[in-house]
Write a structure and sequence with these properties.
Helices cover 31% and strands 30% of the residues. The chain is α/β, with parallel strands linked by helices. The radius of gyration is 24 Å and the shape is elongated. Bound molecules: adenosine-5'-diphosphate.
Length: 299
């Protein structure tokens, strides 16, 4: 069942077209990611889905309603980049206040514990990471059906980032649908069931992380130390193999398709063992570079 549908979304700020033509549909219970370089239009897209900005064109439906429908306030939790709270508000006060807005709030004390939110520190005194964790807790405190999370783990240290991923997976396991904006490849690959890759205001690919990786034409490389001399011509005769290089006692085989099977079957037929075998496969980074022509997300 589709819970968020975006069709041909368009949004400009004066002469800057932030979102040119974005379409995607999010199914109930999935973690759907929007991945793209800085300035691609990710935040503008989720702000339109959250009802915080009005689209210039296209159609958006959230749980069958237009994004501005006030009934969605109880059903959709939003964590935005750079959310601001009053300086004097403590973590406890913010969580108590926000949970009072909802008829069936989550246990805010458990959320604060899981996310390590400081309860007595005033907002102005919180570190960037503490503010970030509080804003995630506030997005979840209403027990939403959908959580929209923008740059969830930006500003968190690697351990806090991994802890947050665990929490998001636990939230999803409770049946919450999650729309996530990220520029971290590892986060996208680890968390998301499906990803829309956005570049210059348009969707350039939409697939599972594995599907995006499989779609790359990037070569694989296999390195190993053969237990006995290998006749390189036997490897080169396989259609999967493009090149075989020697580095001292190591061989490096580059190619495509089921390269590992091709190499291991040649070795097995000649009673050769591959020691210290290492495989370099295409990654989401490779897919991203091929799709956007950029070497990284620009952060
Ligand atoms: P992303 O989240 O992918 O980094 P944004 O949606 O924030 O992208 O921005 C897309 C484009 O719109 C960028 O060129 C950005 O400079 C511009 N933009 C974003 N917000 C505003 C705004 N409030 N006013 C003018 N331009 C904006």
């Amino acid at each position: 069942m589709t819970v968020i549908e975006v069709q041909n979304l368009r949004k400009a700020y004066g002469d800057t077209v932030a979102v040119r033509d974005v379409s995607f549909a999010v199914e109930r219970g999935e973690i759907f990611g929007i991945l793209g370089p800085n300035g691609a239009g990710k935040t503008t897209t989720v702000e339109c889905v959250s009802g915080l900005r009005q689209a210039d064109g296209g159609a958006i439906s959230v749980l069958g309603r237009p994004p501005a429908d006030t009934a969605l306030r109880r059903l959709v939790g939003v964590q935005l980049q750079e959310s601001q709270l009053p300086d004097k508000l403590s973590g406890r006060e913010a969580l108590e206040l926000f949970s009072s807005f909802y008829p069936g709030p989550a246990d805010w004390q458990a959320l604060a514990r899981d996310l390590d939110v400081p309860l007595t520190t005033r907002y102005a005194k919180m570190s960037g990471g503490q503010k970030q964790r509080l804003s995630i807790a506030l997005a979840l405190v209403g027990n939403p059906e959908i959580a929209i999370l923008d740059e969830l783990t930006t500003g968190l240290d690697p351990q806090a980032r991994r802890d947050t991923w665990g929490l998001i997976e636990a939230v999803r396991a409770q049946g919450v649908t999650i729309l996530l904006v990220t520029h971290f490849m590892e986060e996208a690959e680890r968390l998301c069931d499906r990803l829309a890759v956005i570049d210059r205001g348009t969707v350039v690919a939409l697939d599972t992380p594995a599907g995006l990786i499989a779609g790359t034409t990037t070569e694989q490389r296999i390195r190993f130390r053969p237990s006995a001399p290998v006749d390189v011509a036997l490897l080169e005769a396989r259609p999967e193999v493009r090149q075989v290089l020697r580095h001292g006692s190591q061989l490096e085989v580059a190619g495509t398709g089921n390269l590992l099977h091709a190499v291991t079957s040649v070795l097995a037929a000649n009673d050769i063992i591959a020691n210290d075998l290492r495989i370099e496969q295409a990654s989401l980074d490779d897919a991203f570079v091929q799709l956007t022509g950029r070497s990284d997300t620009g952060e």
